[in-house]
Amino acid sequence: MLSIDPAQQTERENYKFLIGSIIPRPIAFVTTLSKDGVVNGAPFSYFNIVSANPPLISLSIQRLEGNQKDTARNILASKEFVVHIVDEQNVGQVNETAATLPPDRSEVELAKLTPIESLKVAVPGVKEAKIRMECVVEHTLELGDLDSPSCDLIIGKIVQFHIDSDIYEKGRIDPRGLAAVSRLAGHDYAEIGEVFSINRPK
Predict the structure, then answer these.
(1) Bridge-partner residues for 131, per DSSP?
(2) CB 142 within 8 A of CB 152
(3) 115 in Cβ contact with 123 (< 8 Å)
(4) Are 70 and 76 in contact (CB under 8 A)?
(5) pLDDT tens digits, 18-57
(6) For the range 173-176, what are the long-range contacts, defined as Cβ-Cβ under 8 Å and sequence gap of 24 or more?
(7) Alpha helix (H) ranges present in 32-153?
(8) Is the pLDDT of residue 144 over 90?
């Protein structure tokens, strides 16, 4: 087995190691609202659950040469955002939102996604997602060098769930009906695939 010291590798080498080994990763499609009212949308695979009580999720948004992305800048300004689960039906449109656009252009509009009003936050969601979560900021943290942060870590508290009634019964979500996709490395994604069960020890 190889032993690799991350301090002896480039940032790119560490990035490739991480995204190739920590798989599959859930994908959050995140909508935010700019101060000028533009609906921004972008996918992120550095995303997961933090807590169920209260319901918290984490979102890590990498900076580009030290510059914040529109999503992070909008979240920090408004303290609100909407997270959507990416699935087999909407992944093509979500992928289009990864295009680099100026802040005054909407990726949601570019991908022909349908904005839908939220109940508890000002940020709209998109209709094409089977699950969306309205969030408010719980905590934020700049990570990386003190003089040049490389990442914005955002902890969001979910204040409203929305789910397609066809995939939700007796408090449980049908994973096949949701058909969530996950991120691998490079241009690769994965579907749910085979599902198996193992009893937990008492």
Answers:
(1) 163
(2) yes
(3) no
(4) no
(5) 999 999 999 999 999 999 999 999 999 999 999 999 999 9
(6) 173/131
(7) 70-78, 91-96, 107-110
(8) no
> Which structure tokens are listed for 112?
């022909």
CA dihedral 34, 31, 89, 107 (to 10 degrees): 20
Q: Locate 56 and state its tokens.
A: 């918290």
- Whole-number Å distance between alpha carbons of 117 and 39: 12
Region class of 91: left (phi > 0), else alpha (psi between -120 and 50), else beta: alpha
Instruction: Sheet containing 25-26: give its strands across.
Output: 25-26, 182-183, 189-190
Contacts of 71 (CB under 8 A, 6+ apart): 30, 32, 40, 42, 44, 61, 81
How many angstroms separate the Cα of 85 from the Cα of each of 63, 150, 164, 167, 179?
23, 25, 12, 13, 10
CA–CA dist 99, 163 (Å, integer): 27
Residue 146 confidence (pLDDT) above 80:
no
d(CA 125, CA 116): 5
Q: Amino acid identity, residue 115? A: P
Cβ-proximal residues to 48 (8 Å cutoff; 6+ apart), any chain: 26, 57, 58
Strands 172-173 and 168-169 turn out to be: antiparallel
